[in-house]
Amino acid sequence: MIIILLGPPGAGKGTQAGAIAGRFGIPHISTGDIFRANLKNGTPLGLEAKKYMDAGSLVPDELVVRLVGDRLGETDALKGALLDGFPRTVGQADALSACLAGQGRGVDHCLCLEVDDGVLIKRLAGRRLCRGCGAGFHVDFSPPPADGRCPNCRGEIYQRDDDSEATIENRLKVYHDQTSPLIAWYAERGLLRVVDGDAPMATVEAGVVRALGL
Ligand code: AMP
What we know:
Order of helices and strands: EHEHHHEHEHEEEHHEH
Radius of gyration: 17 Å
Structural class: alpha/beta
Bound molecules: adenosine monophosphate
Number of strands: 8
Number of helices: 9
Number of domains: 1
Helix content: 40-55%
């Protein structure tokens, strides 16, 4: 089972991803998380990706495609994968199809979470995360504790560098220019399932379950 999670930054892809991957027993592969982990460890890949991430731009296709191709060849991904934040360009979608076809499989579903820009800007600018367990907070809707420590694991709560207002604007522009054409691309192939991502979390989850026919 290969599932793609598509949607603008801040649509809630990461939140839904864990639950979907768990249901299908497949690994959750987030290209953004892989880049951030590489950056934390100071690898050449992380340092290269940082140049683009800080500006809210996309890391070049050839780098991302190789990374995901290698990851999909690992043993745990042979039974399937949930791809979060990949593909983000038509070139990446083409490369993914070719890579999967080479392994005798293909994309089963492309799940698109739809949310308006105004809502996304508020969500992203107020978003805070735990460095330890990845738990999410929001300065207005789910404020982190005053001591700046995660109530689950005591990890440090931080704001992603690319959640600054200037970078958010560019990330949304990049999404509309380069990633949103994938909505039509997957629809033409009969693989698109759309869910309204601007609803309470339980409602979005129910929409995802319905869209995937679970
Ligand atoms: P995310 O955590 O998915 O919002 O990704 C954070 C940043 O990582 C993006 O703004 C891009 O700079 C980079 N990135 C993640 N996935 C991709 C991808 N599939 N193609 C190009 N750049 C990516």
